[in-house]
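User: You have something folded?
Assistant:
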Amino acid sequence: MEVFSEHPKNDHLLSRVDARVKLSVSLLVLAMVLSYKGLAFPLFTLCISLVLCMGIKVRPKVFFLRFSEPVLIAFVVIMIKFLFSGQDAMFSINPWGMTITGHKDGLMDGLQISSRILGAVSVLALLGFSTPFTELMSALSWLRIPRGLIEILMFAYRYIFVLSEDALVIYNAQKNRLGYSSIRRGLSSFGVLAGSLAIKAFDSSQNTATAMIQRGYDGSLPLLKQRPLRLAEVLFSLFFVVIMGIIWNL
């Protein structure tokens, strides 16, 4: 539950910045990270995001859980590019009759892709840590993202917590009955848990649709009203984007 919970409950500098400004800056920096040819700018962006996450006091447990999957994906990409792509061989070994070759250019390509992955994830993680979900959805509507997509995201976010609590209850009940005492029983218990969650999700969707129709739902959810943008925030964000653009061009 801590992984999905909203972190921005403390009063810090980023929490007072308009979500539209943060979203716009994040999208521009994200485009720079993904389009950069090299390692320097994505790693620089990663360092800035890490420092800002520490500044807003993100708990280390939540931080490492959020970054565990991207780090694993980046490692897999590096190994695949290193061992199966490239022309400049660094070494070649033949264990058990198989030829394993490491390529220098493949390693560099893998590092570049991995740096983009980690840099992009760090930008999105910082945006998520510093912006409440409702404000983020309101900023997306301001950017003219299709309203249907925003409503689906809001419903999905709402029921992440419901399904997480249901999954925890089922898991604890199975664990108390030794449902995970062996690999075979663990796989069987996991299958029951997944099936139960699928049924609960379907039932919840039906009940929610019925309840909302009875309360006059017409297919449109009200979102937060947008306050006027503050000039200081806009100017500072433009200054930051220009500085990042200069670094990107170096």
Summary: The mean pLDDT is 86. Residues 146-219 form one domain. The longest strand covers residues 89-93. The chain has two domains: 1-143+227-250, 146-219.
